[in-house]
Amino acid sequence: MSLPKETERLVADPAPGITATPHEDNLRYFDVTIQGPDGSPFQSGVFRLELFLPEEYPMAPPKVRFLTKIYHPNIDKLGRICLDILKDKWSPALQIRTVLLSIQALLSAPNPDDPLATDVAKHYKEDEKDAQRVSREWTEQYAMA
Amino acid sequence: MSIDPLEKWLASDVHDPSDFPKSATTLRDLDGSLRCNICGELFSAPVTLGCGHCFCSVCVREAIQVKAECPTCRKTTNESHIRSNPQMEAAVEGWRNSRALVLRLCLEEEKRRSAPACAPSTISSTIKKRKRSPDSSSSPTTPEASNERPDKRANGPSSSSQEVTIIASADLVNCPICQKRVQMKRVNSHIDNGCRSPSSSDIERTRSKPAQAQKNAWSKILDRNVSGKGKAKERDGDCAPLPKASYQVLKDKQVKDLLVDQQLPTTGDRNAWIARHQRWVLIWNANLDKQPEQRKTISELRAELRRWEEGRSKAKKAPVVEDAVEYEKLNKAQFDRLIAAARPKNSRDTQTQTPADKPPDEGKENGGNDDDDDDVIVLD
Question: Among the record's GO biological process terms, what is one (chain B) (predicted)?
Fold first, then answer.
């Protein structure tokens, strides 16, 4: 119901550093790219994600997953994201755009206290400098087009 | 890559604040502020919660069913906090009716400002120019100012001359509906044709509103009132909101009776009955949040319920496979093709870049990450 409008808005007026393109054969499925935020270890990387809007959207949250490998305590190696608004804190007033901006913000502010990738989170907690170095390396290796 | 279906669908009649040009930020804001945060449409039966946030009645009732909080500020709420907001409804109705006109004027204005003023060298255009000069000289030219210009003024200079016919201005009247200049004797047929008949465009505005136009305007208003009353009468007896039922404590027969009471179909199983009754209560009560003259009739509501069920069953039916083995055999060719297509994609995904982008690095990266190649899963 609300799908076409929101897609149009996304395509017509994208948020800075974020693109979202619907698949031509399935308008509920989006190819997403997010630029790593400046000042983070992910700076100047371009991360690819996939986003799917379930039938119940907007009453249920969209499903989002990183396709690009990323070294981040809240993103596991399957690309799954630990973010409250994608789970129990979802609200139908949130939109694809706000979700993607939240994910971008998560890159700036990793939260090792609520980890998904436990080994990465441990690394971040024990030696943040070194963990950030690895994040930078991964960004250079996987997220530079 | 062909984006035909996408383009077709983007061109379809979807309204959005971004319809207005970027320079018209105030109009974008206005359009956005009259839209529901949940569905993105102009408010339909706007209601306010205790926190003051406003949504379509249907949208917020549906949202509260899932989670009892305000979708915007997360303040705990429930259905008893819902209050209809007739002022907002009136504002939205006004905007809905004038939006197309304002948008057209706004786009014309944008076009006019971006295109260099090229005066066609016909007599008619010089006449037009001269006659209009006092108006256009006084009109502001900065973008900000022109956005806030009232409609009437914007109309003058913006509707540029394409087919200028010289008609004595005394014969011209404003169409009460589209505001175009029409010859007085043609105004009736112009309105009957849905404002499509050729209007003589913009020569000069006369302040006098001829009797005919006024009569038309009055009859339009009066007609609307009459039909509004008629509709209200039709529904007189049944304007009470329906109570929610606690289905868990009801026996099958009692659930069925709920549907029978409302003269709803009793097809399907218990779950279907509950879903149907729940939805009926929702759209019924949401309908009551509209002003009486805006409300839908019972038959319209029934049709809406039917469409909702059809949409649901379509979405549900799709993934059901009766005989898995038979299905696999039938679609083997397609599966093989998909598998073949997925293989190269699989290795590409873990590399995080298309080989075409950077072929020299491909081998190097592949070598470094062999252990991760089987990690890619498909989103459920």
Answer: protein monoubiquitination
